[in-house]
């Protein structure tokens, strides 16, 4: 059973960079529900989008699968025969827990969870690829190459679902949306100390892009339809169709 997120509740003398280690894996469901506005809606809709876009005898990829929420949502919705899901995460703690979650749910759509760097995984015969709050943790210079690999591995008509935290080019809007996000976290029981320490720990490992930057890059790679389908404050999700 997942624990309550109090990782940043006490003062920490030396705040290192945020890592998806055993301590984070233990409290991750609580952490993400209380930290990411609209997360449950995004997970539910990923399943609905997968139901629409999954093609028979194709592969579905959940890149940066963490504990498998998106994978499970897709398994519940996909009806096409011959599909398989490949979930990938580079955190051993996440992968071990994810496999337990996947094994506990019976489905006609098999799912294989592997421990690997998503930059090293081949994308082949894909109809759906999910990057659910994953791309923002890659080095900015590695992002386009990964997206190009995804595009090349997608079947025509396949979909990329890309959920991210966004930065905004208008300074006033950017600060307002950050403040609203912090209000959201306060409303979910996080203290000022927790908000401050978490922000300091994560700022060097998560470097978000703007919505126009995402749109331009995806369109330049070749995706023919790129849209934001969900946004709450400075978090959201896009789809890009090949």
TrEMBL record:
Keyword Iron attached = no
Which controlled-vocabulary keywords does the entry list? Methyltransferase, S-adenosyl-L-methionine, Transferase
Per the record, the GO terms for biological process are: methylation; tRNA wobble uridine modification
- What chemistry does it catalyse, as a reaction equation? prephenate + S-adenosyl-L-methionine = carboxy-S-adenosyl-L-methionine + 3-phenylpyruvate + H2O
EC number(s) per UniProt?
2.1.3.-
Q: Which Gene3D superfamilies does the record associate with it?
A: Vaccinia Virus protein VP39
- Per its UniProt record, what CDD domains does this chain match? AdoMet_MTases
Domain Methyltransferase: from-to ranges: 60-158
Q: Name one Pfam family in it.
A: Methyltransf_25
Respond yes or no to whether keyword Zinc-finger is given for this record. no
SUPFAM superfamilies xrefs: S-adenosyl-L-methionine-dependent methyltransferases
Job of this protein:
Catalyzes the conversion of S-adenosyl-L-methionine (SAM) to carboxy-S-adenosyl-L-methionine (Cx-SAM).
Q: How does it assemble?
A: Homodimer.
Family, similarity comment? Belongs to the class I-like SAM-binding methyltransferase superfamily. Cx-SAM synthase family.
Official protein name in the record: Carboxy-S-adenosyl-L-methionine synthase
The organism named in the record is Photobacterium halotolerans
- The gene designation is cmoA
């Amino acid at each position: 059973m997942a624990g309550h997120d109090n990782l940043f509740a006490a003062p920490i003398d030396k705040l290192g960079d945020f890592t998806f280690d055993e301590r984070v894996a233990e409290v991750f469901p609580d952490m993400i529900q209380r930290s990411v506005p609209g997360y449950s809606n995004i997970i539910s809709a990923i399943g609905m989008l997968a139901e629409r876009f999954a093609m028979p005898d194709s592969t579905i990829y959940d890149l940066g699968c963490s504990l498998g929420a998106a994978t499970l949502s897709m398994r519940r919705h996909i009806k096409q025969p011959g599909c398989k899901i490949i979930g990938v995460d580079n955190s051993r703690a996440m992968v071990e827990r994810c496999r337990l979650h996947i094994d506990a749910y019976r489905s006609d759509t098999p799912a294989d969870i592997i421990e690997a760097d998503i930059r090293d995984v081949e994308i082949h015969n894909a109809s759906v690829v999910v990057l659910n709050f994953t791309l923002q943790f890659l080095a900015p210079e590695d992002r386009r190459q990964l997206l190009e690999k995804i595009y090349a591995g997608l079947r025509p008509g396949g979909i990329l679902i890309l959920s991210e935290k966004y930065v905004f080019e208008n300074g006033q809007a950017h600060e307002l949306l950050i403040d609203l996000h912090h209000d959201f976290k306060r409303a979910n029981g996080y203290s000022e100390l927790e908000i401050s320490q978490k922000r300091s720990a994560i700022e060097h490992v998560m470097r978000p892009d703007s919505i126009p930057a995402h749109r331009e890059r995806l369109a330049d790679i070749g995706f023919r339809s790129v849209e934001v389908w969900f946004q709450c404050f400075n978090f959201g999700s896009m789809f890009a169709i090949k």
